[in-house]
Amino acid sequence: MKTNNIVVKKFGGTSVGSIERIENLANRLVKDIAAGQKPVVVVSAMSGETNRLIALGEQIDPDYRGPAYDMLIASGEQVSVSLLAIALQKRGVKAQPLLAYQLGIRTDSVHAKARIKEIDGSTLIRFVEAGVVPVVAGFQGIDDEDNITTLGRGGSDTTAVALSAAISKYSKVCEIFTDVPAVFTADPRLIPKAREIPKISYDEMMEMAALGSKVLHIRCVEIAAKYGIRIHLRSSFEDREGTWIVPEGEAMEQELVSAVTHDANTAVFKLFPVPPGAGFLSELFQVLAARGVVVDIITQSESNEGQRLAFSVTKEDVPLTRQVLKETVKTGAEVLLIENMAKISVVGVGMRNHPGVAARFFKILAQSDIPIHIVTTSEIKISAVIDQKHLAQAANSLHTEFNLDKVE
Amino acid sequence: MKTNNIVVKKFGGTSVGSIERIENLANRLVKDIAAGQKPVVVVSAMSGETNRLIALGEQIDPDYRGPAYDMLIASGEQVSVSLLAIALQKRGVKAQPLLAYQLGIRTDSVHAKARIKEIDGSTLIRFVEAGVVPVVAGFQGIDDEDNITTLGRGGSDTTAVALSAAISKYSKVCEIFTDVPAVFTADPRLIPKAREIPKISYDEMMEMAALGSKVLHIRCVEIAAKYGIRIHLRSSFEDREGTWIVPEGEAMEQELVSAVTHDANTAVFKLFPVPPGAGFLSELFQVLAARGVVVDIITQSESNEGQRLAFSVTKEDVPLTRQVLKETVKTGAEVLLIENMAKISVVGVGMRNHPGVAARFFKILAQSDIPIHIVTTSEIKISAVIDQKHLAQAANSLHTEFNLDKVE
Predict the structure, then answer these.
(1) CB B101 to CB A101 under 8 A?
(2) CATH of domain B260-401
C-alpha cells in the first residue's frame, strides 16, 4: 500500500531557524522515511522571520490588515518550505514544496486570523502515492477571491491538523514538534512540581488553550476533535513521547482535575449601578467587540441598590476598554478598574460527574485568605480572578490539592 | 472610460529598496493617479533580496534548480508588492497585490529561466475597471502544474511588457523605470562621448541586449516587438524622458549606426585541424549546450591543411569548455585558448541598405593596428573579437567614425 504509514508532521520555526537546523531536520526525515514512514511535512517560517515581516509592514502602517498584510507575512513559510525541499532533494528524497493555492487550502476572508473551510486532500495523496514528500507551508490559506490569508499565531499547527483531517481516510495521526516536550499539569516556571501529561482529551486541551496555555491553538484542537485526529505533541529536540491529545474515551488516567492553568495578564472592571434599560449591556459588549477588545469573564448580580457588573480583559486592552466605558456609560455610575489581576483555573473532564471540585477549589483559596474577584465555571473547568500577588500560592496549593504534583 | 490612460509601470529593486523608497514610490504613484493615469504597477524584489535568497538556497545545494528554487527566490517580489500595496492603501488608494497564480501568468517549466506562454489580461482589467491599482509581482510565473517559476535576471521587465501585451487592447505603453536614465550610444564608462538615444527600434534593442548591453532583457523586447508595445525606458530618480523602444518605422533618426556595444568578458577557443567526420561539430556544440555553456560566435574555415574552428565563450565558461573539448576531441588536434578577449560591435538598422558599414568598421580597426580574432555579422550588426587591451581605443574610434559622439 502506497498510502499506509502516512503521518502529518509539523515543525515550528525553531526547527527551521537556520540552514544548519534545516539540514538536521532533513536528516531526521530521511531516517523516518527509511523506517517506512510516509511523512507529510508542515513547517512554520524560520524563527524570527514572521516578526521581521510584520515589522516591515508596520513601519508603513501599523493598523493595516488586509490581503497585502497576509501576503507579506505568508512569504516566511514560502522560504522555509523551499529550503527544506532543497535539503531533502539533496539527500535523494523526492520532495515537493507546496503553498496554500496549490493544495486548495480554502479559508474565509478574515485577514490575519482566517479560518480554514476546506482542503482538497486528493492533491496531497497524489504526491504521496507518487513517492513524493509534500512539504507544506503552514499558516496560510486562500480565500474565495484567491487572496492569500493567514491563520493567526499558531496557525501552522492548525494547518497540520486540517491536512490530517483532509486525508483522515488514510491517516489519523498528526505529530506536532515544539520547543516544549509535552503538555504539563501546570506551567513548570510557576509550579515546580508540574509534571507531563501523557494523554489528554480534546475538551480539556481546548479549555486549557482558552485559559491561556500557549501550547496549542484552540482552533487546531477543535478540528482534531471534529475529525478524530490524534495529535501527538512532542519535543523537537529529543526523540521521545510527549502528550497525546485524543478522544475522551481513550484510556486516560481518570483524574478529577487534569491541569491547573493561569493567565497573569488580567484586569477587572466593575460598574455599579449598571445604567437602566435592556439595551445597555448588549451595546457595551458590542462596542467592545467592534474595537477588538476580547472580554473574558463577565458576571452580573442584582442587589437592592441596583445591578452590579464585573468583567475581565487582558492588560493590553485596559486603555481601550476605559475609553469605551467613558463613551457608553452616560449615567453617574461608578466605574472601578482593578489592575494586577490573575486568572487561575482548574480543568478536567473528571469534574463532569463530581460536583465536589468547586467546593475544594474555594476551600483551598479560603484557607490561604485569597479573595476572589470574579468566578466562572463550565462543565469541565473552574476559573477565578485573584490578585497577582496570590497567584503562585494559589496555583501550587491547587496543584497539590488535586493530586497533580510530580512524584519525586 | 474606465480603461483609458492605463499604463503598465515597472520599478526595479532600487525603487523598493527600503521602506522610505517604497513610501516615495507610493507618493509618486498617487501623483500619477491624480493626473488621471491608471497605473498597473510591476515591481522587483527589494534590492539585494533576491541575492540573499539565492545564497540561502545555495548554502544547502549550489547546483539545485527546480520548483523549490523558484518558489524560494520568488518570495522576494511577494514581499515588495505587499509593502507597496500597504503604502498605497495608507494614502487612500485602493491597491491589490497580485502574484503570478492570481493573474494566470503561465510559463513553461524551465525553472530559473522560464518563458511566459500566456497571461489572462481580463483579471487585470477587472481590477482597473473597479478603480483598483494592481500591484503585480514581477519575475514570477506558474507552470502547467501550478508550480512557481521564475523568468531569470531581468525577468520583471519581461513581466511588465507581457502584462502590457495581455491588455494591449487597452494600452500599448509600458514604462520601465531603472537606475540608468536611458539607452546610450555606448557605455559611458568606456566612451565618455556616449549620448542618450531618444528612440530605438526593437531589432536594434534586441541586438544590443544580445551583445551584452544589460539595460533590457532580450525576451522583454521580443514580446514588445511581437505585440507592438512601446517601451519607455526612463530614470527612477528624475522625471524626464528616457529612451522609447518602438517599431522600426516610427520616425527615428536615420543613423547608419545607432550604438557601439561591447562585452569585455570573452575568451576564444581555436581548434585545428577539426577531427574528420560529419558528426563532430554537432556533437561538440550539443555537449556544450547540455552543460550550460553559451557559445557566442562560431567561425569555421577550410584550408589545404584541414578545417579550422574558432568560437567564443564567456570567461566563466572557460574551465567547463576546456573539459568538454578534452572529452570530445579524441584526435591529436591542437586546442588553443586565447583569454582576455573583448567583443566590440556596432548596431544599426541603417546598415540594412548601406553595405559600406563593414568596410568602415574594418578600416578603423586596421588604422589602429588592432588585430581581429573572429568576426560575425548580421543584417544590422557587425561584431569583432579583439584583445581587451585594444577595447577602449576601438570603441571610441568606432563611436566617432559613425557620428555617435555627443555634441558638446
Answers:
(1) yes
(2) 3.30.2130.10
CATH of domain B6-179: 3.40.1160.10
3-state secondary structure at position A175: strand
Q: Count CB neighbours of B265 within 10 A.
A: 15
B52 dihedral zone (left: phi>0; alpha: psi -120 to 50; beta): alpha
- Closest Cβ–Cβ partner in A60, A71, A81 for B97: A71
Residue pair A201/A257 in contact (Cβ under 8 Å)? The answer is: no
| SS3 assignment, position B205 | helix
Helical (H) or strand (E) element with A44: none
- Do strands B243-246 and B199-201 pair parallel, antiparallel, or not at all (unpaired)? parallel
What is the value of pTM for the model shown?
Answer: 0.87
C-alpha A151/C-alpha A134 separation (Å) is: 20
- Check for a shared fold between B6-179 and B260-401: no
Assigned fold of A6-178: Carbamate kinase (3.40.1160)
Domain residue ranges in chain B: 6-179, 260-401
Q: Work out the minimum CA distance from A63 to partner chain B, whole angstroms.
A: 9
Predicted confidence (pLDDT) at residue B1 exceeds the cutoff of 60: no
Q: Are B82 and A66 within 8 A, CB to CB?
A: no
* B81 neighbourhood in chain A, CB within 8 Å: 68, 71
Contact B45, A79 (CB under 8 A): no
Span B129-159, pLDDT tens digits: 999 999 999 999 999 999 999 998 789 999 9
Q: Which single residue is written with the C-alpha cell 477588545? A: A293
Q: What angle do CA A150, A16, A178 make, to 5 degrees?
A: 75
**How confident is the model at residue A304, as a pLDDT?**
82
- How is B218-281 classified by DSSP, letter by letter? HHHHHHHHHHT-EEEEEESSS-S--EEEE-TTS-----S--EEEEEEEEEEEEEESPPSSTHHH
User: How far apart are the C-alpha atoms of A261 and A390, rounded to whole Å?
Assistant: 14
pLDDT of residue A305: 82
Asked if the ipTM is above 0.90, the reply is no
pLDDT at site A1: 56
